[in-house]
Amino acid sequence: MLTNKNWNCSMSRVLDVVGGKWRMNILWVINKHQTIRFNKLRREVKGITTISLTRGLDVLLEHQLVKKVDFESKPLHTEYQLTEKGKSLMPILRDLNQWGKEWL
Q: Is the full-model pTM beyond 0.90?
């Protein structure tokens, strides 16, 4: 069993990665589409700026929750997908979503 100190440390680390204002929304939308281009992702995450999306994706990419696929076709384009690690968060996000529907 985890002590409170270890729980706080683990929770803090998780929140550092997914707790930003937009990061859970970004993960949610990518999961919904499975593969999505940047501009479509920006349109679907209501209210997010291009800079906030870029920064959020950078954190999620750094922690290997999202992967970026660059296509060398004409015109060049990039798509984002959840990694297995990112997909493992989806049951937790679904539970949070359900909790929000019930209690907020």
A: no
